Predict the structure.
Amino acid sequence: MRKEVIFNEENPSEITVLDRVFKKFIASEDILKIINDIASRINKDYADRKPLFLIVLKGSVFFAADLLKKISVDCEIDTIAAKSYGRNIESSGTVHLSELSENLSGKDIIIIEDIVDTGLTLQSLIEKLTEQRINSLETVSLLVKPAKLKSRVPVKYTGMEIPPDFIVGYGMDYAEAGRNLPDIYRLKA
Ligand code: IMP
């Protein structure tokens, strides 16, 4: 069976995922530092509330797991699946969202996104959530690509703004490959 992820033995900062070469961009220890900062802000802002973290599957699972371990306020967790990329490195522009598993009325929701690119996923999700009588709604995203945004979406907690390059690792995939890489890589120009 052909391996999907191949590490470059001569240059450990480079990997090949399927047919493309990526370069290490954010090491796992730096990701954790970014997450600690975000978690402190959320713990402060939600000191007297019980937020419900809505994890956007599948890409956010690593980020959500590490972030939620650092959340010290009482909270709830739910998930929703979103799809817009298929096997490409550009958004198809059409976002498919799964159904919400529970009624969220009265809740203080924090959406957990791995990466905001065009912002269309987040926009669709915000529209879906505002159909319910939720108490408040904020978003946390590990990465945001400001140059790619097509929709003005409010991201209150941003881990890092990055250039408009395609990313893989730490939950984020290229055609479903590379999600389990502990570090974040960016497509080599
Ligand atoms: P958007 O709708 O274009 O903002 O894209 C949001 C979703 O697309 C994210 O939650 C990711 O799952 C996926 N995505 C966006 N950019 C990338 C990337 O660079 N690498 C991998 N997945 C991405």
